[in-house]
């Protein structure tokens, strides 16, 4: 329905338009002229202002009528209608409302507002509607009738809660252009955006009418601002816009809704509602955080102060981080994106990424070490291994055998030495020698009349040693450093001794191959002094023993030296009377026996039937064997045994413990597996910078080489994986190991390779039956190796094949311009003599004058005499047309180029 115009209403009311306009203006409604349209509330006001002259009943007489008491026709209904808000009158025969005869204007005003906002109430009889106001004002504190600046706002409602958005409308001509909820102090010039003024925490420019949380603190206490606030435009925040206290002409009147002031604006919430001048703690905090929070990519995140520590486990996700700092993970995704990294909230990220994010946000990210993580995990199961060790008393500790690792440079005789030592075993000599390779063995040696055991880790080389250390397993007590007397100290000798020294493991030097001609044991002693290994006979504290692994010479002395070194500085004792704790030194999958692990007990005693967990493998000890293939029922500290009964193959260096029961063992294993998976995910993810990623996306390809590694023993698989991940191929190619495992290549592996487009690398394994056929059918590339570095070479080459080729310009020919022919058809033709190489048609060219390239045209036409040719060789004359490029002179050189691929090294 069209809105009525002033003159229509005036006619209806029987008053001149002029009077109506005057009346409405007096009531605070700005009405321009007789043809102005009027909003419904204003019409109501008009009718109420001239009630006696009305000729027609008002559209809603009930609401329009002043507080004229009307007997309640349906008391029950009225009660219901007003119930939620009522504190007041009971409808009854004496319907007079509490406020004793308020002035008509006031009543009209109040009714207009409450009726508009509360339709339910507006349907009710006027008395009830009026009474339904939140507070029944007593006559004493009733404001006097006054013009209500906001009165023409159809949405204005004093009783309604804050509305989320300002609603334009009404007759207010100022509402359009006004911005910022700016008050008009004293009706004067607009003050943009509630400029900051003392006493009012004025919002920043432009914030005046956003529904921002900071705004309510804006102190609507400035009455000067409030008074002119008719055009003010505040939603909940708009109120703050009115916060500039006392503009010119504005008198401070704390408390907001004072007389004649205090409404914020026609379209705002009644801004004059009392607002405490003091900010709430919450508001202050929000404000503080806003100041602190950096806005990266439009998200605001509370900053740390640069030292705020955040502990994250390996493979943590942005969600984990977000939880710690109590923000929405999506914000962190955004921040990371703006740092040039793409990641989802649930993707495991590596340490570097977290560090970068931490630096940006002022947090110090600490990735919990694997050891600590495992410690915490075990603590969840009531196992604190450190505390357990500390609590052990001297009486509980019993001597144990030293555990020795043999290290040294390649071909210096480590394997041969371990063989020789095995044969030197005084006990196995009688028992028929060591028959089984189990990854570690014990030999016995007579020392000071006592037969003592020494445990050797049967995996020579520092790789195994460091791999175990990397897993937090310090298995070795003493290192034997083998140096060939005919070769001297070599790079791996130094590496090995560095590793041993770093681990604080004492070294005994075995100077090997002394049987060889040209062997110079003293030279070795001399060389090693440089590395802080000074022979005892030279006044140092390192024992050097000359041996010949080949001939079995010096082995007894070497074992003697090991025992002496152990006795000199090591406290080799352990408590055998508790559940076993130790390390898995090697593991593999045996066809008949399933997962087989060689474990070395550190403390306690391992027994058949124990529930154990080793790394992520768990199970029950079904049987144990020693290096002589004898069944054993228990293993005491430093006793290596081969254990059968695990459900999967543990990794070399995984710690093992005896758990209370099978269930606990399984749970620990599962939790570890989950942690490891997360860590793997983080490790696997190679970074792609945003630019590269974008480019790759644009080109529709992200180069990723997916690999599946299968090997015979877990140690080899890990070694291969580590080495592969260390291949440096730059940022362009992504290398991912999507699956790894011990055992033959299976159909599952091929399936996985099909899905992820991966290549399968088998190390010392073969495909299971029918798997090769399946791989051929599916087009899956399987490669099998028995030497790690061959696998590495192939992968590296394959990666390089995938790299986008790099090109360089290679000059293929040069011709000197001897003469220039002008042709209207072809432009300038250069009559040339080919000076070197050959000039080919369509080749890229450079025109060089006095050593400077003046243009880079292409060879457009190439002629020998009258014939078009494709190539002219060194020493011949030719005519060259360079297309549109005509800036040539006699004496210029035309060089031609090809782009050739640069081989990668
Ligand atoms: N003459 C002589 N030759 C030895 C001696 N010890 C080892 N060799 C020879 O040296 C070569 C390398 O010996 P290995 O025991 O395989 O050496 P390694 O350090 O285990 O070598 P990698 O396993 O390749 O690191 C073999 O040919 C051995 O026969 C020795 O005491 N005297």
Walk me through the structure.
- There is one protein chain.
- By secondary structure, the chain is α+β, with helices and mostly antiparallel strands.
- The strands form 8 sheets. Strands 26, 27, 28, 29, 30, 31, 32, 33 and 34 form a 9-stranded antiparallel beta sheet that branches. A 6-stranded mixed beta sheet has the order 7-8-6-9-10-11, sandwiched between helices. Strands 13-14-20-17-16-21 form a 6-stranded antiparallel β-barrel.
- β9, α20 and β10 form a beta-alpha-beta unit.
- α1 crosses α2 and α25 runs parallel beside α28.
- The longest helix has 23 residues.
- It is flat.
- The protein starts with 5 loop residues before the first helix and ends with a strand.
- About 27% of the residues have low confidence.
- The site of guanosine-5'-triphosphate has 16 residues, from α17.
- Pfam families: EF-G_D2, GTP_EFTU, IF-2, IF2_N.
- One of its GO terms (cellular component) is cytosol.
- It comes from Demequina capsici.
- Belongs to the TRAFAC class translation factor GTPase superfamily. Classic translation factor GTPase family. IF-2 subfamily.
- It is found in: Cytoplasm.
Uncertain segments are 53-277, 684-702
Number of beta-strand segments: 34
| Oligomeric form | single chain
Strand content: 15-25%
Features:
binds guanosine-5'-triphosphate; 30% helix; alpha+beta; single chain; nine-stranded antiparallel beta sheet; flat; GTPase activity; 34 strands; cytoplasm; 28 helices; nucleotide-binding; 905 residues; GTP-binding; six-stranded mixed beta sheet
């Amino acid at each position: 329905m069209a809105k009525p115009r002033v003159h229509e209403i005036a006619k209806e009311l029987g008053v001149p338009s002029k009077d109506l306009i005057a009346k409405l203006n007096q009531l605070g409604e700005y009405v321009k002229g007789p043809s102005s349209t009027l909003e419904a509330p204003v019409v109501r006001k008009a009718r109420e202002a001239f009630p006696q002259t009305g000729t027609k009943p008002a559209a809603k007489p009930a609401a329009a009528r002043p507080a004229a008491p009307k007997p309640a026709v349906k008391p029950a209904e009225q009660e219901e209608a007003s119930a939620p808000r009522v504190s007041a009158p009971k409808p009854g025969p004496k319907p007079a409302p509490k406020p004793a005869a308020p002035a008509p204007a006031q009543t009209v005003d109040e009714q207009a507002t409450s009726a508009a906002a509360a339709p339910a109430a507006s349907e009710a009889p006027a008395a009830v509607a009026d009474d339904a106001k939140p507070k029944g004002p007593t006559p004493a504190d009733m404001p006097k009738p006054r013009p209500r600046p906001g009165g023409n706002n159809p949405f204005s409602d004093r009783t309604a809660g804050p509305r989320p958005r300002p609603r334009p409308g009404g007759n207010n001509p100022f509402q359009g252009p006004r911005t910022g909820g700016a008050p008009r102090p004293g009706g004067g010039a607009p003050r943009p955006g509630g400029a900051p003024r003392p006493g009012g925490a004025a919002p920043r420019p432009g914030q005046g009418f956003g529904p921002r949380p900071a705004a309510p603190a804006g102190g609507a206490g400035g009455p000067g601002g409030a008074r002119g606030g008719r055009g003010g435009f505040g939603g909940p925040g708009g109120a703050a816009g009115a916060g500039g206290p006392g503009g010119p002409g504005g008198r401070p009147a704390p408390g907001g809704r004072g007389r004649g002031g205090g409404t914020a604006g026609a379209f705002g919430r009644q801004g004059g509602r009392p607002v405490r001048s003091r900010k709430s703690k919450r508001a202050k905090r929000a404000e503080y955080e806003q100041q602190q929070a950096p806005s990266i990519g439009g998200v605001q995140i509370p900053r740390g102060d640069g030292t705020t520590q955040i502990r994250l486990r390996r493979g943590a996700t942005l969600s984990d981080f977000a939880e710690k700092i109590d923000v929405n993970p999506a914000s962190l995704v955004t921040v990371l994106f703006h740092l040039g990294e793409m990641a989802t909230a649930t993707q495991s990220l590596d340490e570097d990424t977290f560090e970068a994010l931490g630096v940006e946000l002022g947090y110090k990210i600490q990735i919990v070490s694997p050891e600590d993580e495992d410690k915490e995990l075990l603590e969840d199961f009531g196992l604190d291994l450190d505390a357990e060790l500390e609590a052990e008393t001297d009486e509980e500790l019993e001597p144990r055998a030293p555990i020795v690792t043999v290290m040294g440079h390649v071909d210096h005789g480590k394997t041969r030495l371990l063989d020789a030592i095995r044969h030197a075993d005084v006990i196995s000599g009688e028992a028929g020698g060591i028959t089984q390779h189990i990854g570690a063995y014990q030999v016995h040696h007579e020392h000071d009349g006592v037969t003592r055991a020494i445990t050797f880790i049967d995996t020579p080389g520092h790789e195994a040693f460091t791999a175990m250390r990397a897993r937090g397993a310090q298995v070795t007590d003493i290192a034997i450093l083998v140096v060939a007397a005919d070769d001297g100290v070599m790079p791996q000798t130094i590496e090995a001794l560095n590793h041993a020294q770093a681990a604080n493991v004492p070294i005994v030097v075995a100077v090997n191959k002394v049987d060889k001609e040209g062997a110079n044991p003293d030279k070795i002693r001399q060389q090693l002094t440089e590395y802080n290994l000074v022979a005892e006979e030279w006044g140092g504290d390192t024992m050097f023993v000359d041996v010949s692994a080949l001939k079995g010479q010096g082995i007894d002395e070497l074992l003697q030296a090991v025992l002496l070194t152990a006795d000199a500085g090591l406290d080799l004792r352990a408590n055998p009377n508790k559940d076993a704790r130790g390390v898995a030194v090697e593991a593999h999958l045996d066809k008949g026996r399933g997962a087989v692990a060689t474990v070395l007990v550190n403390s306690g005693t391992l027994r058949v039937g124990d529930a154990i967990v080793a790394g992520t493998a768990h199970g029950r000890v079904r049987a144990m064997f020693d290096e002589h293939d004898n069944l054993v029922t228990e293993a005491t500290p430093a006793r290596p045994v081969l254990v059968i009964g695990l459900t999967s193959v543990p990794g070399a260096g995984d710690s093992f413990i005896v758990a209370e029961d099978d269930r606990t063992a399984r749970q620990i294993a599962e939790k570890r597996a989950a942690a490891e998976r997360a860590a793997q995910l983080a490790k696997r993810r190679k970074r792609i910078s945003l630019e590269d990623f974008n480019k790759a996306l644009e080109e529709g390809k992200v180069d990723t080489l997916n690999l599946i590694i299968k090997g015979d023993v877990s140690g080899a698989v890990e070694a291969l994986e580590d080495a592969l991940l260390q291949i440096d191929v730059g940022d362009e190619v992504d290398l991912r190991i999507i699956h790894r495992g011990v055992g033959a290549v299976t159909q599952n592996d091929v399936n996985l390779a099909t899905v992820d487009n991966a290549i399968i690398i088998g190390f010392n394994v073969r495909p299971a039956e029918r798997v090769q056929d399946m791989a051929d059918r599916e087009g899956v590339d399987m490669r099998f190796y028995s030497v790690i570095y061959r696998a590495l070479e192939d992968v590296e080459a394959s990666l390089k094949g995938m790299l986008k080729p790099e090109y360089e310009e290679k000059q293929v020919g040069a011709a000197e311009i001897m003469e220039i022919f002008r042709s209207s058809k072809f432009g300038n033709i250069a009559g040339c003599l080919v000076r070197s190489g050959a000039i080919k048609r369509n080749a890229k060219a450079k025109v060089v004058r006095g050593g400077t390239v003046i243009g880079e045209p292409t060879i457009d036409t190439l002629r020998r005499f009258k014939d078009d040719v494709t190539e002219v060789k060194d020493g011949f004359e030719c005519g060259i047309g360079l297309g549109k490029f005509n800036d040539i002179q006699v004496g210029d050189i035309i060089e031609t180029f090809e782009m050739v691929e640069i081989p990668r090294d």
